[in-house]
Amino acid sequence: MRTLIIAGIILIVGLIVLSQSLYVVDETEQVIITRFGEVQDTINSPGLNVKAPFVDTVVRFDKRLLRIDADPETMRDANKENLSIDSYARYRIVDMVQFRKTLLTESNARSRLGDIVNATLRERIALRTRPEIIGARPIMDVAGNPVVDDEGLPLIEGTESRTELLAEVLSGVRARVNARERTAEFTVPQPGGNLEGFQVTIPESVINPNDLRIIQGPEGDGNLGIDVEVRNFDEANGRLTLGTQDGETLEAGASFTVQYFVARDEPFGIEIVDVRIKRADFPDTVTPSIYTRMRAERNRIATKFRAEGDEQDLQIRAGADKERDIILAEADKTANEVRGQGEADAIGILADALEQDPEFFAFRRSLEAYKAFMNQRTTVILSSEADVFKFLQGPGEGSENTN
Fold first, then answer.
1. 39 bridge partner residues
2. Half-sphere exposure of 318 toward its Cβ, with a 13 Å CA cutoff?
3. pTM of the predicted structure, to 2 decimals
4. Degrees (nearest 5) of the Cα angle 194, 129, 210?
5. Quick check: 398 pLDDT over 60?
6. Which helix (H) or strand (E) holds 144?
7. Distance between CA atoms of 262 and 264, rounded to whole angstroms?
């Protein structure tokens, strides 16, 4: 019995030791083995592995693409107008040891890299107008005027400016991840304020000369953006040659800031794969005014449609009234012509009948006269010798006096 108990204890201890010695690496993971905080090994391949029990610790990191959702931030464009920018980035851990040393956890990495993404976006957006940030521009005619639709709204076409912006942001984020940002401030020399060919010295060793740029400086009323431009950089002696935008004049003593990057003492151990803008919209504070302007624009279009409808209504009514008047006039004309022709025919027929038998015509006219006055409730006193009674005297009498 005692032997069985000892054997059971040994078996349990063995299972515990075995469970502490074996670990599984998933195909989506990469692992660091540490012993009292010191890195002992790194594992990148999936499978079953062995470590020293109790003293070794498994630290797991994701091998897949990871996402950074930067906090939405209000940024100013080249026209000093605010935009709410919501962005995200994708990165991959390429050096677990360095990642653990500098950023410790993925949560810290999201916070740190989110700040870097927003800082780079803020810098690039400040150099562009709103249409360039959105990736669109109004269509212009040959005279340089905006083309509008039937409602009077400008027609818009897509551009590649958004793609170019994101490419610059990606390059800037990579530069900040792999290097440390530095700035140096200089002033426009005396006299005259002309910077063409002017040289300044960068005090540190620059990693990538292509990342040298002017991030702050005078902005005149001519060309958009900072008036100071980078012309050339001599890596051997750190001399930066500057110039001035065409058509711009700088004031002597005006300051400008040069941005550059130097080697980072402790790299982050990550690779930035992509940076994207999810949303570029107006801040919530100006949303009511935007809706008000949209309503005013729609009211303008509706008023225009109503005016055009009223104009068409008047034209249609005027045309219908004109056609009616023409039809009625032609009908009256035709009726008068027919009536006149009928009366002419009747007079002709009557004249022919009168010529054929004047006595019968006189007799018929007398009968009509009898019918007219004898049917009325009127008492008429006439002489028996009156002409109207001559046909009542007897057949054939009065014919002599017909005429």
1. 34
2. 6
3. 0.61
4. 55
5. no
6. none
7. 6
